[in-house]
Every structure is written in structure tokens, then in C-alpha cells.
Write a structure and sequence with these properties.
The chain has seven helices and eleven strands. It is α+β, with helices and mostly antiparallel strands and about 250 residues long. The chain has one domain: PPM-type phosphatase domain (Phosphatase 2c, domain 1, 4-Layer Sandwich). Strands 2, 3, 4, 5, 6 and 9 form a six-stranded antiparallel beta sheet that branches. A five-stranded antiparallel beta sheet has the order 1-11-10-7-8. Strand 5 and strand 6 form a beta hairpin.
Length: about 250
């Protein structure tokens, strides 16, 4: 029986308005771990915080400890706590980095092909399955809290003046809590991790349609990023796409 495999790709862009890029992302060499982080804080603080976050994930995964599926939640929480501590420590040592923080979304594909997701902030993981779009994370943001209370639609969240106010991130509270969840990952599924620059420019139904038109994760990233740029790219945007297929070969680009 052929092994089910997945392919992945990632892109990041400063956009057309911002002077710097405070996003960072990571794809592990074994193609099982994917991270997007969107930094907050001026004077380079946001970029520093998001870089510390992804480097912490990379470092802890590269230790090579073989984790069982039931161990991954604890690993994610411990990794988030370690990244949080490092960000806070760095901010305390440099006044220019004071109040820096970062969102984070981590996706791990376990040995059985199941998705494990941990996140804090409004960087998202979503899944496109055939013509179905599903949000795998719930934003920690003021507008999402209003949406959950029935006060705003998702479309209204995209245009609300408070859309960038997040209620949780790494670097501000100690300890920090991440939300953890598990989802199946079937052949043909596409999982997209992204900073909020993507959702700012493209609504969910259009993301679903554009993903369906793409043949591979590289095309998913390019198509979505091109669309963001065409619409003004008012914020930094980072996109990581993971596509599962019945192919034997597992490649990462």
C-alpha cells in the first residue's frame, strides 16, 4: 500500500504599505512542523519576537525526540511557554524591545497523518476540503469575540476598525496559554497557515475557491499572495500551505 504523503511551501511579503516585515515562518526539514508568527511592537520588536518564536520551535523540534501523538499537546504548550519566556527576557534586556510580542500558529502532522494545532493570537490555520472551507483556529481578537457573541459577521470582522486588536499573544503574559486542537488530514486536503494579512484582503469563500484552482502548495502560496498584492497588501502577509495527496514522495520546498 502506498504511503499517504504531503507537500508544503511557504511565502512571506512585507506588503505594499509597511516599511518592514514583522512576520516569520518555519517549515521543518522533515516536513512535519509548520509555523507562522506575526510580531507586534515598534522599533524592530515585532520582527524580533516572531523570530524568537519560530527559532524556539525549530530548536525544540530539532532535538530529535520521537514524540507520540499523545505527547504533542504537551510539547506545543512547553514550546510556547519557552518562546514566551525568551521573548519577555529579551524585552527586559533592551528598552527598545519593550512590549514586543507575537502571534503564533503551530501545526504538526503526526505519524498517523493527523493534524495537531496550537495557537495564540490571530494568525490562522484553515483547511480546504473539496469545496468546504473550515477554520481550524479561532482568533484571539476583539472582533472575533464580538463575532462569537453574534455582534459581528465574519465579513464585518474583516473591515472593523478594531480588527487588529489581539487579546492573546506570546511575550505579554507569563504564563501564556495556547489553544490546542486536533483534526483529521485526508488525501486532497489543503491546510493554510497565515498571518492576518491574508484574511484582511481575501474573504474565506474566495480563499477556498483560489486554493481549489491550484495544483500544488507552491501554487497555493503564490496565487494567494499575488491576490493579496493586487488588493493593496496593507499589512505583512505570510502563507504556508500543506497539501496531502496519495503520492509516495514527500517533498518540502
Amino acid at each position: 500500500m502506498a504511503k499517504l504523503a504531503w507537500q508544503s511551501a511557504g511565502l512571506t511579503s512585507r506588503g505594499l504599505v509597511r516599511k518592514d516585515n514583522q512576520d516569520n515562518y518555519f517549515i521543518s526539514k522533515d516536513g512535519r512542523v509548520f509555523v507562522v508568527a506575526d510580531g507586534v511592537g515598534g522599533y524592530g520588536g515585532g520582527e524580533t519576537a516572531s523570530r524568537i518564536a519560530v527559532e524556539t520551535v525549530e530548536e525544540r523540534w530539532s532535538l530529535g525526540v520521537e514524540l507520540e501523538s499523545n505527547d504533542l499537546e504537551a510539547w506545543m504548550r512547553e514550546t510556547a511557554h519557552e518562546a514566551n519566556r525568551r521573548i519577555i527576557d529579551a524585552a527586559q534586556k533592551d528598552v527598545a524591545l519593550e512590549n514586543m510580542g507575537t502571534t503564533i500558529v503551530i501545526v504538526v502532522v503526526d505519524k498517523d497523518g493527523e493534524l495537531h494545532i496550537g495557537h495564540a493570537g490571530d494568525s490562522r490555520a484553515v483547511r480546504v476540503r473539496n469545496d468546504e472551507f473550515k477554520m481550524l483556529t479561532i482568533d484571539h481578537s476583539m472582533v472575533m469575540e464580538m463575532h462569537m457573541k453574534g455582534q459581528l459577521t465574519l465579513e464585518q470582522c474583516r473591515t472593523n476598525i478594531y480588527k487588529h486588536l489581539i487579546t492573546r499573544c506570546l511575550g505579554h503574559d507569563d504564563p501564556v496559554e495556547i489553544d490546542y486542537s486536533r483534526f483529521d488530514f485526508l488525501p486532497g486536503d489543503c491546510v493554510v497557515l497565515a498571518s492576518d494579512g491574508l484574511a484582511d484582503e481575501i474573504p474565506e469563500d474566495e480563499i477556498c475557491r483560489l486554493v481549489q484552482e491550484c495544483a500544488d502548495p507552491g501554487a497555493v502560496c503564490k496565487t494567494l499572495m499575488d491576490t493579496v498584492l493586487e488588493r493593496g497588501a496593507h499589512d505583512n502577509t505570510t502563507i504556508v500551505a500543506v497539501v496531502r495527496s496519495p503520492k509516495v514522495v514527500h517533498t518540502t520546498s
